[in-house]
Predict the 3D structure of the following.
Amino acid sequence: MRSSLLAALLLGVVGSHAVRLIDFQVAQPPPLPKDAKQCTIQILERTFGFSFGMSEVVAYAPPTDCGTPGSWAGISLNFTVTSNGTQFDRLALFSLDEVEIWRSSTPEPTRGDGIIWTYLKDVTRFIPLFSKPGTFVLQLDNLLEAGLDGQYATTLTATFFASSFIHPPAKKSNSIIPISLLSNTNASLISVPPDFSLNVTFPRNTVEAYAELFASGNGNEEFWYFNTANQFVSQLPAGTTFGQGPFREVRLLVDGRVAGVAFPYATIFTGGIIPSAWRPITSYGALDLPTYFLDLTPFVPILVDGQPHSLSLSVSSAEDDHTINQNWFVTAAIQVVTDSSSRPTTGSITKYDAQPFALTTTTGSAGANGDLNITVDATRSIHIESEIVSGSGKRNKVVWSQQLSYSNLQNYLQNTTIQNVFQSTTGSVLSTHNKIPAVVDKFSYPLNINFTVLNANGTSFSAFFDHSYDRTVLPAPFILGSTIKERQLAGGFFTIAATGNFGNGTSNNTLTYVDLAGNTYDREVNAALNNITFDHEGGSLARGTPRFPFFPKSTASISGAVRFPGLRLHGTKGEV
Ligand SMILES: *[C@@H]1O[C@H](CO)[C@@H](O)[C@H](O)[C@H]1NC(C)=O
Ligand SMILES: *[C@@H]1O[C@H](CO)[C@@H](O)[C@H](O)[C@H]1NC(C)=O
Ligand SMILES: *[C@@H]1O[C@H](CO)[C@@H](O)[C@H](O)[C@H]1NC(C)=O
Ligand SMILES: *[C@@H]1O[C@H](CO)[C@@H](O)[C@H](O)[C@H]1NC(C)=O
Ligand SMILES: *[C@@H]1O[C@H](CO)[C@@H](O)[C@H](O)[C@H]1NC(C)=O
Ligand SMILES: *[C@@H]1O[C@H](CO)[C@@H](O)[C@H](O)[C@H]1NC(C)=O
Ligand SMILES: *[C@@H]1O[C@H](CO)[C@@H](O)[C@H](O)[C@H]1NC(C)=O
Ligand SMILES: *[C@@H]1O[C@H](CO)[C@@H](O)[C@H](O)[C@H]1NC(C)=O
Ligand SMILES: *[C@@H]1O[C@H](CO)[C@@H](O)[C@H](O)[C@H]1NC(C)=O
Ligand SMILES: *[C@@H]1O[C@H](CO)[C@@H](O)[C@H](O)[C@H]1NC(C)=O
Ligand SMILES: *[C@@H]1O[C@H](CO)[C@@H](O)[C@H](O)[C@H]1NC(C)=O
């Protein structure tokens, strides 16, 4: 009695008896000034039951009590959600004025008291959108049907940090242009294939432009890193996995020419393969999907002619025809900086060295015993230079380069009861403006998944994940740069049963964060069987250790709705 009362108090759970499991993604708190005046407004409150095609659409108006709109030192969002029952992970997509600003997803609930999570998201770079009245959309397409009864009760607030002498206004672009469906009834996500193009007219005095790409695989592309090259997929039992191979490149094209690309991070959602491994600590990225930053400034000389230009988003594979399965969701937000003079910018692209597609190789070896090992490698090199002259006469020599490499090894062993993936994704991205770095992205996202099927009918399996996110990124000269080193070792066992899925899991996590403003954060947190077994937090952004009291209840049998690679058990819904 005493300990659960104490726990209820410590957990901050409202209500008499509910002891909700606190889910979370390991992440740094937003690097915003704690001592600044803060104004919090509620943006929306909505329970997403059966909500397919029924996004929450609200009128947004900037607060005026933390300084002139737009003068803020920063903005963060607080998305707090409770849920109970059985439900799949769902995408949660936030957009403001047709610009996607945050892609998240939902942890899967538990039955009974259910779960609660809060994610704090730094949206300072979207101040140009938050400075004026607009339309805010939260798209969370949930389904209720036999066996799936979990609803998501959501509250979204925004906190504005007033600027002051100590905390100056955040630097910002002049406008943000979306590459999206331009819908105000949902989050405007583009589904590719097919490739998507939008005609965009830029201000004639544009002097810099930066694109942020949002991209994640969905449906038969959810486990894209497990998809097998077409030349080998027929050697596997039908339904083991999907074709089109495991390599994916997200491309942004200007008038049909490649402007920049991203080799994406593999976000695993909380129903992914072993749902019980992602509870209470979600897979890294599930609540805040990584995005990718490109410098579009080299194309400014072309974009400033006052005419519409075609901007295209595409996701391609290492197959001969570069096609993928259905589907990826993509959008882009383009931060535009204009000159103080209204005279048109001039200039030219002086060097363009970019192939339409990455260079790829696919090799494999099949054993007499049916073993199959397949390797897909890719490299990508882009080098573009431009001379840009602003209306006010400033010259900018821009150099933009990307050097990316990728390798994916799949082992299908012992009659495919063993399915292992070893993927490496690394890159170095650099743009300089008059030799000063503008966009920097050095990254490494190694991923190893060992998936083992434990019984003949394939209903029991284990998987162990070793996944890292090491990234030094400077998104643009006016957006705070940071270095994150994160590693997640997770895994467990799971069984699908008509009477209710069950499984267990452990998750060990380390994260360090440091940014160019001098903020630091580190966290080491482990979980086993729904229980936090170790938690240490440090650095200037820390809010006190331990943040999560040891959870008093534990069960070795954790239910959940599961999805995993291939068709054999695809779409299995979990307990009724
Ligand atoms: C986030 O919002 C929830 C309510 O929606 C609130 O209980 C919680 O204190 C907020 N967290 C922070 C850090 O502001
Ligand atoms: C479970 O979810 C339902 C639907 O959202 C809600 O009415 C109910 O209060 C929740 N129960 C608990 C214990 O949170
Ligand atoms: C969003 O709305 C547009 C119409 O404005 C529609 O074409 C599109 O299919 C919708 N997308 C989703 C994911 O519901
Ligand atoms: C873009 O504009 C060109 C010329 O005006 C037109 O031919 C093309 O169809 C447009 N493309 C899209 C995607 O709207
Ligand atoms: C496949 O890889 C496994 C693990 O490295 C190895 O034991 C096996 O001999 C390989 N088989 C073939 C046919 O390459
Ligand atoms: C291989 O697995 C299939 C089921 O996926 C099974 O029918 C078959 O008997 C297995 N073969 C051997 C040699 O174990
Ligand atoms: C799968 O096989 C196991 C024994 O290996 C059995 O207990 C279970 O009931 C079977 N499940 C289904 C859905 O056939
Ligand atoms: C996966 O298996 C390989 C051996 O094939 C092992 O070296 C590696 O540590 C395993 N990875 C995980 C995450 O357990
Ligand atoms: C996490 O760490 C614990 C103890 O430190 C260990 O028993 C467990 O196997 C680890 N889990 C994974 C998935 O590496
Ligand atoms: C999870 O379940 C498997 C299979 O029942 C068992 O071997 C393993 O010890 C369990 N793991 C933990 C951490 O309890
Ligand atoms: C949860 O973890 C803590 C710390 O390791 C431990 O003391 C406690 O016994 C665990 N609780 C359960 C129910 O496993």
About this structure: Residues 78, 80, 118, 120, 155, 157 surround 2-acetamido-2-deoxy-beta-D-glucopyranose (ligand 1) (CB under 6 Å). The first strand starts at residue 21 and ends at 23. The longest helix spans residues 2-11.
